[in-house]
Automatic annotation (TrEMBL):
Pfam families: ECH_1
Protein name: Enoyl-CoA hydratase
Family classification: Belongs to the enoyl-CoA hydratase/isomerase family.
Organism of this sequence: Mycobacterium asiaticum
Gene3D superfamilies: 2-enoyl-CoA Hydratase, Chain A, domain 1, Lyase 2-enoyl-coa Hydratase, Chain A, domain 2
InterPro entries: ClpP/crotonase-like_dom_sf, Enoyl-CoA_hydra/iso, Enoyl-CoA_hydra_C
One GO MF term attached to the UniProt entry: catalytic activity
Length: 268
């Protein structure tokens, strides 16, 4: 299998779907370095794997993710790390995972129940779509622990909900439910717990059946447009249109329109 499971992370491909499941329920799925490295490797591989058309990130047990497992990551050596160890480590760990989720042209769906704290919260933010149980709990624990946000929190949140609500989350440590997260526009949708799997399956199926090339290029346009002026963005739009209009899915879309039927995209 191309996508191997590791302790704490189950990986499996089902047709066009790559499913990554956080699997440390006894630690509320807190992410250690082994899990992080595997997630990064799998996302990078899926980005160039034409058989993968959608990625689902979910978790075993009652909680999505309690954040980074600081205890496990700091217990690897009896020696005190050198000054700057955090600054050297993060670019290859959590600070690599979040940009990779944003940049890969494969759509990502996060499915959240229970607690999503710290890095777990940010994985949900970086996914293209997050479907959560209405009673899920989103929390930024940094002020309660006496340190500063990591893994892109202070970059992601203001772009989604503005500075006022970001301060409530990061500086005051306000917890919010899945329902509130949906109302604020942080996540795609919140549903009752007993409807979560059905809602997630429907969304994953819709994305898996979509025109993959156009979908990926649209994701790229949305992400790259954050830092560009309009002229440069329009140049990127022209290139994306050139590429997508040469795809087999584009020809199928035109044929379906002509024949007055639903398109059957193959992701090519």
């Amino acid at each position: 299998m191309k996508y191997q499971s590791v302790p704490g992370l189950q990986a499996a491909q089902h047709g066009p779907l790559l499913r990554l499941t956080l699997d440390r329920a006894d630690r509320r799925n807190a992410v250690d370095d082994t899990m992080l490295d595997a997630m990064i490797d799998h996302l990078a591989a899926a980005g160039t794997d034409e058989s993968v058309r959608v990625i689902r990130v979910d978790a075993a047990g009652p909680d999505f993710c309690a954040g980074s497992d600081l205890i496990a990551n700091n217990a690897k050596s009896d020696r005190k790390p050198r000054v700057g160890s955090t600054q050297r480590r993060l670019p290859n760990k959590a600070n690599r995972l979040i940009p990779l989720m944003l940049e890969t042209q494969v759509p990502i769906v996060a499915v959240v129940r229970g607690w999503a704290a710290g890095l777990g919260f940010h994985i949900a933010l970086a996914a293209d779509f997050c479907v959560a149980a209405a009673d899920a709990r989103f929390w930024e624990p940094f002020m309660a622990r006496g340190f500063t946000p990591d893994s892109g929190a202070a970059w992601l949140l203001p772009r989604l909900i503005g500075m006022v609500r970001t301060r409530q989350l990061l500086m005051l440590g306000q917890e919010i439910s899945g329902a509130t997260a949906a109302d604020w526009g942080i996540i795609h949708r919140a549903v009752p717990e007993n409807q979560l799997e059905c809602a997630a399956d429907e969304l994953v199926s819709q994305l898996g059946d979509a025109p993959t090339v156009a979908l990926g290029l649209t994701k790229w346009l949305l992400q790259s447009g954050n830092g560009l002026d309009l002229d440069r963005h329009l140049q990127n739009e022209a290139m994306a249109l050139e590429l997508s209009s040469r795809s087999e899915d584009f020809r199928e879309g035109l044929a379906a329109f002509r024949d007055k039927r639903d398109a059957k995209f193959q992701g090519r």
